[in-house]
Amino acid sequence: MTSSALYQTVSELTKSELLERANxxxxxxxxxxxxxxxxxxxxxxxxxxxxxxxxxxxxxxxxTFISSPDETISRNxxxxxxxxxxGGRLNWGNGKEKIIFLNVKPNCCGxxxxxxxxxxxxxxxxxxxxxxxSNELYHxxxxxxxxxxxxxxxxxxxxxxxxxxxxxxxYIFLIHxxxxxxxxxxxxxxxxxxxxxxxxxLAIEExxxxxxxxxxxxxxxxDYLKLHEKALKFSNAKRVVIADxxxxxxxxxxxxxxxxxxxxxNNMYLGSNCTDSISDIYPTTLRADIAAYLFKGKKNLSxxxxxxxxxxxxxxxxxxxxxxxxxxxLPHGGGYSLSDIEDVLDILEYKHQRYFVTSLKTNxxxxxxxxxxGNLQFEYRGRDVVLKTMQLDLGDIIARLNxxxxxxx
Length: 409
Description:
single chain; eleven-stranded mixed β-sheet; alpha+beta; about 25% helix
């Protein structure tokens, strides 16, 4: 498929043609392991739905996914069933077109990086955490929901190994958390379409050939974006409030970066740092047993990287070259790695549900057919993600953070 993809009437295409077309709008920088392949296989379904809806409402059907090296599955069932993977930037316009796809489910998750002059005592931190959790803590009159012990949210401490001229404190802590307070607040609009009834009542439900998508348009999209901006500020502030109490003897905020958020009406960072501010510092965390890293951001992808990835011609044909040159992606973590899956061989569809036929690493002639990827065995990837990040020149490493201890409470 060539540039003719731009001139097709999307609604007239068959399902297989829609999926083939959508595949052209996936620009993967992932590791191409089992989780990466599952992400790409699922993502073409989400993009196909978005293309149909874009055309219906008079927008260019050019929704695009640019993955970061931590490209992987989404273990959130609703998001995955909506045809969405994780690890990268999802774009469906110039940032000003008032249409928001709600199935992306922004949660305003991010990481605060703080510097310490002395290594904290884990026992004292545990006592402080218990004090925080046993009392009601508010910010801007909103009760804080402690979410630093669920999923992959945490409080971690590291020893700093400086790798640049930027002077950093000898010890670093990371606080990873989101804003569950805004997902489905009582009697008011929430961020999560599958949790907030007021949002579902407001949204337009679009039934496509591949399943339902929920959207907001015009003033409703504007109101939602305002709510999201409020939630994003709250999430950032919440991590500071927690840090102030855990490290009340003094610390330095090095950065406080979101990695799962709406940047504007048409850009969703799905588990990826947004490096549009090249003066900022961005964290990339891997497993608890290996080092994390701090990066200086870069505007990317470079022409060299685009050429090496064989993206240039396709991007030019689809009139997406400027978008890719300003992707501004950087992994926030290693992403999920699936211990037994080697490849995606086929996809079986039944009642808008997708069953992925996969081969196994131990014996590629043996098949595992999965629908709910959230129940698959997984671990977190290691340094390969950082090596791919450096290979693509997505940022400059300024520090290696050697792990000392991790708290999940």
